[in-house]
Write a structure and sequence with these properties.
Blueprint lengths: L1 H19 L3 H17 L11
Length: 51
């Protein structure tokens, strides 16, 4: 059941990326870059974005 829901989320994300001209790989790479930057600055604590 949860796997099916996650598949739906993935489909919607893929469609959104396609409509915006991004690839899933670009989005994943940008997210990893953001998270590594937060980790290096000691800002990963689960308190929201814009750190």
């Amino acid at each position: 059941m949860l796997k099916g829901e996650l598949g739906d989320v993935l489909w919607y994300l893929t469609q959104l990326c396609t409509n915006l001209g991004f690839s899933l790989e670009e989005v994943a790479e940008a997210n990893l870059t953001k998270l590594f930057s937060r980790q290096e600055r000691g800002m990963i604590s689960g308190e929201g974005d814009e750190r």
